[in-house]
Amino acid sequence: MDTARDRQEFNAVYARKIATLTGWLMVVTFVASIPAYFILYAPVRDHPDYITGTGADPTASVALGAVLELIVIIANIGTAVVPYVVFKRYSESLALGYVAARLVEATFIAIGIVSLLTFLLMRQEGTAGTDAALGHAFVAIYDRAFLIGPGFFAGVANGIVLGYLMYRSGLVPRRMAMLGLVGGPLVAASGILVMFDVIERGGAVQGIATIPEFFWELSFGIYLIVKGFKPSPMLAGVDGEPVSPGANS
């Protein structure tokens, strides 16, 4: 016979599985995105004139970077969709907002992928001629797409929205969530400052501004893998109706 305790135990196991999968997806975004941006795309980002056919062939590195970023897109969306059933119990609007912000971020990542794959196609087919300006244009599109996606919307999604959800719900330690509430606005602000040419893209100021957000996202993923969501009234009926936010105030 099904009892309230049986249902509660089932919901706890279900929530733990959601937390673990969400944590792994968050870690995957790190594992896949860092080598793509800093290593695999480096040849064309540093030498856009490669499009004319001079210099080393960047096919292998760019193609592998594109594959990794496709994985990043899937993982990014997953970090918002998988825990949605838990997050909406605090605030359905914020849970939907997190999904939307992750989708926008993923869209700009996709734009960046297409720009570099177009660069690669023109290099492979020799259709760029001697006009190195085309290579610079495609790389510039990638850089601006990266600035708006991971450089701005990641701060909004993971820092501000997710940080606020976690801080108010108490599903992870609130001191940890504070890293997101601090780091998110810093990442978003640094992206805007780069747009206005106030600070240098990829410079020291922007690098420092990303540190709290970096540790927030990484610690969030690892915490969910190791411990899962903290016990909360919100998880008492994960598959039921949302509880009042006042239950966790």
TrEMBL record:
It comes from the Bacteria. InterPro entries: DUF4386. The chain crosses the membrane at residues 21-42, 62-87, 99-121, 141-165, 177-199, 205-226. Keywords: Membrane, Transmembrane, Transmembrane helix. The keyword Transmembrane helix applies. It comes from Kribbella pittospori. The keyword Transmembrane helix applies. This is DUF4386 domain-containing protein.
